[in-house]
Structures are given as structure tokens and as C-alpha cells.
Design goal:
The chain is α+β, with helices and mostly antiparallel strands and 379 residues long. It has 11 helices and 13 strands. Strands 2, 3, 5 and 6 form a 4-stranded antiparallel β-sheet that branches. Strands 7-12-13 form a 3-stranded antiparallel β-sheet. It has a two-stranded antiparallel ribbon with strand order 1-4. Helix 4 runs antiparallel to helix 6.
Amino acid sequence: MYKYRPEQFLDINYGAAKILSRLQKFYLGSLIVFLAISFLGGFLWFLGVQAGQVILGINIAYFASSLRIVKPDQVGALIVLGYSISSLQRGLHFAPFFISDFPTEPLPVIEEEFPGEPERVWHEDAPIPTIPEINRFGKMVPYYVYPVRVTTGRPDYGNEGGGASTGNPLDIQGTVEPVFFVRFQVKSHEYLEKFIPNIGTLYEVVRQIQDTMVRVLTSQFSQRTIQKIIEDIDQINTELQKKIEEITGDWGIEVRDAYIKTVGLSHTLNTALRDVGVEKTKALATIIAAEAEKKKLIEEGTGNAKARELLLQGEGAGIKSIADALQIQQGEVMELIRTKAAQDALKEIDHLNMFTGNMQGLPGLFGLADALKNRGTSE
């Protein structure tokens, strides 16, 4: 169990007081020197020595040029002759010109997108234009940057038996162009003690974070196919932030988050995936059209068969009616129809009326029936 020790509390406060007194002593000493030189110059001027005016003017100009301002959204530090004096908060401060450094950094959360803003990433095959610019960290850098390209793993990565692809068009090995973010903030209370001696500038923070993120993504992506990367994106982001926090632990910054914005498929792969979708849509449309044509033919065939069935039923009923009326067998009626005489006689009969039971044309058939009976008798 933790045991409270009064001396530990006193040590902490003594250290804080020591840092505070260091800045106060420096300001007090600087003020004494300024006043001493000003008094000397003023005294010589009073005595009529021309150099007194020069000394007094140079002293006042030096003091004025040594005044610096830390803005409300900044943290600063005072380093004199290579010795750290103190961290500085917003306000007016005295930093002796020429013999001191007065670094400042922004306090708000900083967001960096890698490899760069979308309009600055060069995806063309042509050589990259050499257009320099000064970035927000005061460094001369190229305006255009190349994308980060990482090769993914095989579908059978890590499988001793040699796993097979799932058939998903993204379950393949390929080259992707990931875009990733980091958000961090400088800790004001650790700016002088950790940030300046361990990393120095925000430009160096961003550069080393980018190198680390590329290394982590290369390692993670090489173990997965493109499809698996998309499925495991949260797991990869967790590993990414963990690594960033490890390397920045003593930099005096707080990493808010680090994550992959997009996997970034290449233009060629995007085009291929688009074509896969188009071809699948075309195939589906072909299947639908074939099914529709099949259904049409089935329905047409069913309708034709039904019509034929009804026609045959009508013909059978008509033949039966004729046979009953003539008092002969239905086969004999068919014989009558097949004979030329019957065909000639049938030309004078209304075909529709005959099959609907109208007996207006039956006298001709009675004559044909008598002729048929007589022929049978003579034979």
C-alpha cells in the first residue's frame, strides 16, 4: 500500500520553486545589467561625453529587441547560452538578443494527413514537378509528394496447407496506397524538459511519426489480403496507435489518435473491380431476360396446347353429333370426311355451325350416308 511521505511532497514543490526562481533570478539579473548600463550611459552623457548617448541608445535598443511574446495558443521556452531557463506561458517575456533561443510551438491539437493532402499527392506516371514551398513548420519542402505504396499478403499467408481464395475479388495480393492520420498535442508542462531535448521541433515529430506509421502498415498489410485488411481495419488502427504512443512517450506530446483513413486501391484495381460489377450486372440481366423468355414460351405453349385441346374436343363433339343424327358409327363419319365426295359436300356446309350443333347442313350428309350404305350393299 502506498505510504504518504511528507518529504516527497516537499521535494516536488522544491523542484517547482527552483525552476520558478531560476526564471525570476534571470529576469532580475537582466534588469540589473540593463539599469547599470543605462546609468553608465546617462552619467557619461551628463558629463558631456558623447559616448554616453551612444551607450544609452544601444542599451535601450538591445532591451527592446529582446522582448518576445508568447501567444495565447502557444507554449515557449527560454534558453540562454545553451542552458534551459524555463518554459514560458502566454505573455511578454525578456529573451536577450543574440545569446538566447526562444522556441515556441502551437498548443492546439495538430492533425497531419500522410502522405499529404489529396491535391498534393502525385498519382500520374509523368515525373513529379519540382515545386518547392515553405510548410507550416517553416521548412522548404516539395509541394507534390508520391503516394505511400504497400504490398499486401497472399490469400494463403500463414496457412501451412496453402489456403485458397474465397472468391471475393478483393481477397488477393496487390499494392495499395493507404492514407493515414495522426492527431497530437504538445504538453505545455513537458515542453522544456522533454520536447526540446528529445525531439526538438514539430517538423521532426511529424517526420518520425510518418516513418513509424509506414513501417507498421507495411508489417500489418503484408500479413493480410486486401479484403482481410478492410475486415481488420480496427485491429490495425489499434496496433498503429499503440506503436505511435510507444515511440512518442518521452517526446512531451500526447497522441490523441492515429488511424487509417482509407486503404486506397490503385486506379487499375479500382477499374478492374468496377468492371467486375458491370459484368456481374450484365450476367444477371441476361439470366433475368432468359428466365422471362422461358416463361413466355411456356405460357405460349400452354395456351396453344389448351387451344388445341379445346379444338379437338369441339371436333369430337361435332363428329358425335353427326353420327347420332345420321345413326351411323363415328368411324363411318370419319370415312365420309376422308372421301372426296364428303369433302365436296362439306364445302357447302357451314363448318362453324356443324361443330356447334347447328344441323342446317345435315341433309347433304344424309345423302352421303345413303350412298355409303348402298355402296356397301352392292359390294
